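Weekly sync, protein design subgroup
Attendees: M.S., D.O., the rotation student, P.L. (late)

Item 1: inverse folding check
M.S. brought a backbone from last month's batch and wanted to see whether the design step gives back something sensible before we order anything. D.O. pointed out we never logged the input encoding, so this time it goes straight into the notes. Structure tokens as presented (452 positions):
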């Protein structure tokens, strides 16, 4: 494996997954949401009486604002600042629709001039603090018909904001909206013209970006202060969109990235630590995360018979692909062959791993052993899902594409306690900070809280 240590003026597509942030100067980490699925990438937050279990378009809604354009990244929160990215088109293009797309993407780039935007809103009032147009121009690559040219979630280290527009560039701002640096991304052809989607991650002064495509895939590190490229490692992958994980455990800190051909871990210098062929699905989308000292990897394209979930022990090195059954590997704690979702990422809450399937089912497994607690249970009323679940207060929350949140009681039995409607297309995963739940719909950003 080779690495380039040259500083390059371009950057390819990235997603967002910041850990290792420097929030000591700005407040307690519980008041922040620094990356996709939160500071620790799990989607689980401590109980807070201000966090609601019931809402609709008006009940428990502190504010709801229109967000121009389209974007499916989650909101990012630092203190009382909420950041979102979006792309505004001058001409009307294909609008996203719910449900599964089992064919090709949009074959041509979207029409008209586009404006790649970054917005900052006030957490308490929803008022706009600032906005900045990162780029203006015509898209040069197509995209998935359900996606957006702002599919990635921004990330922050508590000092700066990092916004990735996958096939355009990586942009760094001060929290007050001053542009600090940017790096262009060289767009590449992606599988079926689906475009980019993985989010970036921040750790220890590095912005980590993964761009898997059909032409020249890579993982790279950029200096968080200057944007200079620290290292770049080629990847032999083509069909992966998962956000990487900064996995911190007693033995070391590593960067875990799922992939169709191989699941891999890299050092903070970009060197390969371990890998294995997990016979992953043809499309790899769920993002890895850690709980109970294990790292969970998944892929579950609906058309594949093998849709595996793996729980990995720390300390592996080299190729850990077993000769026989996956469960025979020293570093695979457990493995389930058909327990993974397609688009959503799984969640571990307490001792249980919950899987929300795109077509409207949930399963539950023991997070430490992989033993099935309950098999597929259908949501009622029925729904389809892209957003990943989150959890607090003894409940797991599942947001459907119809904008209906199912409040599911955590535990060994599947029980829907409540359904909360917003009545608009929802694909972005919600964010939580300072007793407030932020839900992004097709056109709006809503702040939901019990706080008076």
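Designed sequence read out in the meeting:
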């Amino acid at each position: 494996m080779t690495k380039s240590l040259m500083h390059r003026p371009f950057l390819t597509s990235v997603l967002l997954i910041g850990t290792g942030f420097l929030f000591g100067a700005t407040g307690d980490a519980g008041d922040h949401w620094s990356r996709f699925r939160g500071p620790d990438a799990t989607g689980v937050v401590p109980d807070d009486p201000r966090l609601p279990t019931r809402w609709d378009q008006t009940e428990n809604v502190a504010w709801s604002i229109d967000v121009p354009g389209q974007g499916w990244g989650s909101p990012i929160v630092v203190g009382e600042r909420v950041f979102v990215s979006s792309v505004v088109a001058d001409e009307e293009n294909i609008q996203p629709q719910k449900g599964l797309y089992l064919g090709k993407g949009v074959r041509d780039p979207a029409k008209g001039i586009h404006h790649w935007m970054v917005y900052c809103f006030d957490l308490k009032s929803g008022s706009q603090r600032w906005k900045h147009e990162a780029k203006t121009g015509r898209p040069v690559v197509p995209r998935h018909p359900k996606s957006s040219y702002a599919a990635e979630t921004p990330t922050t280290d508590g000092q700066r904001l990092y916004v990735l527009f996958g096939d355009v560039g990586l942009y760094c701002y001060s929290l007050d909206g001053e542009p600090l640096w940017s790096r262009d991304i060289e767009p590449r052809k992606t599988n079926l013209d689906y475009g980019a989607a993985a989010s970036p991650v921040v750790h220890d002064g590095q912005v980590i970006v993964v761009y898997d495509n059909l032409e020249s895939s890579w993982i790279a590190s950029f200096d968080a202060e200057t944007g200079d490229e620290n290292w770049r490692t080629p990847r032999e992958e083509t069909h992966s969109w998962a956000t990487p994980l900064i996995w911190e455990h007693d033995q070391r800190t590593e960067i875990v990235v799922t992939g169709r051909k191989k699941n891999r871990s890299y050092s903070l210098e970009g060197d390969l630590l371990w890998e294995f062929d997990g016979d992953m699905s043809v499309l790899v989308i769920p993002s890895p995360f850690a709980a109970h000292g294990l790292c969970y990897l998944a892929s579950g394209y609906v058309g594949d018979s093998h849709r595996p979930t793996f729980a990995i022990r720390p300390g592996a090195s080299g190729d850990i692909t077993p000769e026989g059954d996956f469960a025979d590997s020293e570093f695979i704690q457990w493995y389930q062959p058909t327990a993974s979702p397609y688009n959503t990422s799984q969640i571990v809450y307490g001792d249980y791993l919950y899987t929300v399937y795109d077509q409207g089912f949930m399963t539950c497994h023991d997070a430490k052993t992989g033993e099935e607690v309950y098999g597929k249970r259908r949501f009622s009323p029925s729904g389809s899902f892209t957003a990943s679940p989150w959890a607090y207060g003894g409940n797991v929350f599942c947001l459907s594409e119809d904008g209906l949140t199912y409040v599911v009681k955590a535990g060994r039995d599947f029980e829907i306690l409540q359904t909360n409607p917003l009545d608009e297309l929802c694909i972005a995963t919600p964010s939580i900070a300072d007793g407030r739940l932020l839900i992004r719909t097709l056109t709006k950003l809503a702040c939901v809280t019990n706080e008076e």
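Discussion: Residues 31 and 79 are 6 Å apart (CA to CA). Residues 1-29 have pLDDT under 50 and may be disordered.
Action: P.L. to compare against the previous round before Friday.
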